[in-house]
Amino acid sequence: MQKWWNDFYKNNRSIVWAAVAGVVLSLGVLWKVPDEVTRFTLIMPIFAGFILFAILTTADEELDGNLSEEKPEKKAKTKKSSKK
Predict the structure, then answer these.
(1) How far is Cα 47 from Cα 66, in angstroms, rounded to an integer?
(2) How many CA atoms lie within 13 Å of 66's alpha carbon, on the beta-carbon side?
């Protein structure tokens, strides 16, 4: 688990910190604001901002499915049968 987290954090440092900021701001709103409708109104832009930040910081290659790293398909070799 530790190795997985280190690899994930190394590749997604900005998104991880944006998520931490979003969680902290959301918890602050839940703690400070008493009205449920106002809570919803204040928390939704935080989530929308996180989603927009994640989309804008993600490389185009990752969104397209890593087209540059795809290997071309190898054609199956046909065996020649020997005729007698």
Answers:
(1) 27
(2) 4
Per-residue 3-state assignment (H helix, E strand, C coil) for 60-73: HHHHHCCHHHCCCC
Confidence grade of residue 25 (pLDDT, cut at 50, 70, 90): very high
Whole-angstrom distance, CA of residue 68 vs CA of residue 79: 32
What tokens does 12 get?
């997604």
DSSP code, position 40: H
Q: 3-state secondary structure string, 8-24? A: HHHHCHHHHHHHHHHHH
Can you read off the two tokens belonging to residue 46?
A: 């935080």
**Cα end-to-end span (Å), the chain:** 61
- The Cα–Cα gap between 21 and 15 comes to 10
* Confidence bin at 59 (pLDDT 50/70/90): confident
